[in-house]
Amino acid sequence: MSTPEARIALVGHPNAGKTTLFNSITGQNQKVGNYSGVTVSKKTGTFRTPHGVQMELIDLPGCYSLSPNSPDEAVTRDILLGDLQGENAPDLVLCVLDATNLERHLSLLIQVMDLGYPVIAALNKIDLAEGQGLRIDPATLSEDLGIPVVALSASTQRGLTQLKQSIRTPFPPVAERRWKGSHEMESALSELEKTLTEKEFPRPAAHALQLLADQTYEISGITRPEIDSEDSISKARFAYIQQTTENSVRRPDEAALQLTDKIDSIALHPLWGWAVFISLMFAVFWTLFTFASIPMDAIEGIIGALGDWVGGMMAEGDLRSLIVDGIIGGVGSVVVFIPQIVLLFFFIALLESSGYMARAAFLMDKFMSKAGLSGKAFLPLLSGYACAIPGIMATRTIPSAKERLATILILPWTSCAARLPVYLILVPLFIPSATAQTLTLFGIYALGTITALLAARLLKPRLGPSEPPQFLLELPPYHKPDIAYVIRIVVDRALAFLKKAGTIILGISILLWFVNTYPKSDSEDPAVQQQQSFMGIAGQAIEPVVRPLGWDARMGTAMLTSFAAREVFVSSLAISYSVDEESEDADGLLRDRLADATHPDGRKIFTPIVILSLLVFYIYALQCLPTTAVVKRETGSWKWALGQLGGMTLFAYIAALLVFQIGSIF
Q1: DSSP for residue 500
Q2: Above 90 in pLDDT, residue 437?
Q3: With contact defined as beta carbons under 8 Å apart, do 619 and 415 qualify?
Q4: Cα–Cα distance between 411 and 384 in angstroms, integer?
Q5: How far apart are CA 627 and CA 564, in angstroms?
């Protein structure tokens, strides 16, 4: 493949349609990685212009401003300023604007233009703007800004050819700055630029302006003038943007309510807004638990058939056991939950693409503020109900570093899909009514969520100095969801989950197979083999520790094995009670065995209070080593990852202990 002749940076607000445009331009020629030294994703692709020139397109993290409020925004700023080590500055910047909210998006464009790059503006969602009665003149806008402006719709690929034709070499000249600040600010800017030039600092004009425009930005050895330059620059830019939009935009009759306004009169209503939100969330989770079981059963069947097929071609022995039980069975225990994860991400992407998810975050902001969090934490916590791993990854969009860390630390208490098999085995043991079982499951999820929010309230003030609340949210207009975008999001996140969770689970599964297999037992009984294995020995060793919870050695063993993944708890109990998991109605048979199980003195083992103790432990315990590995990567510290693992395990133990001991008294 030939070397690209130029690097183009793609910038824009998170909901401007930047990713859709990136995919439309580059097609399948994409690579995903991480920027050096940070956990922010790096996405690049190549394409050829209509003139045959190969270009590299870099999809920079979405940002609202070059005065960053999040790690993602800081990466975008640093790349454009040339401050990020290992990243070359782009040759051209392609800035994506949302035509339905032009004035707000022009603010970022002006900041990018001020950095001294050749810039092309992609006026996206022009079809939606026209549907709202907005009439934008790209030619007038281009003349006022001094850069090429191309109207397009990335979702329908309208105007895409014209955009590619505008990307030609030589690139358009750098536009002159058309706004002016106060005399004091302009003088300070001139002096700063002169100082940076003398020090041979790269891009001196851009860095001088950034120093004055963002009071949090620092350059070693450079003193910022003691003037209120930030306010002066903001006012000058805003006045210029207002004049520009007045020249190029004709608006509909302001008295007429648009469709978005009519919907928002209900969706954002103090009462009806919550009714809509709760109904949508109930529908999402009802669908999740009702229909996901169909593909999950199919996947279980495929994994079982694959294990039988592979096992049938191999001689009896440890190698076959390793491959069939350790690798296929272990990785299969993760793969089986893909349908639930895919469904949840499908609904999340659908709500995002339609414009509703921003309203949900807006509604949740006031509620979550009581826990010290903002509405930005809502989406990661919601993702955690499918799996904590993608939920933790989604915290990258939270501006405050302290809030992001607090969200990561509490997120595993939102009950993920892997806990569901444990709940479905235990709850019917002492609650026969289907309606009561449903209410109990709701209570389990509510208990975990409420505890998580209370923990955030207590934890966040202890994570460092207080920060001013920063909840910047744009409410995009409602529109028909882009199904292609939804599918891409679902596929990308499902593959990311498989890659990050599956690889870790593979190693853990092999380790678990080893400790469950060795030392070998002379008995053919799987229950005896488990008791005499390293894991069984460990389970018996910790029996004095778990006995105050009402548990025996077999429960202790099942708890230890489930640190790889919570659903392994069920498999371990099935082995302990000699239940063939491939038999018809294996879950029902296991429940019968558990219900009939007794201590040597005849007392029932699985009494209601023991079951409650187990449920409470599994609500709170972080029994997912892949999650711990991802927390380490996202926080950059084993201290937080291991502290979370140990802290949640200790909390779960104490909670289960209190439930059993207090319950036994009554």
Answers
A1: I
A2: no
A3: yes
A4: 6
A5: 10
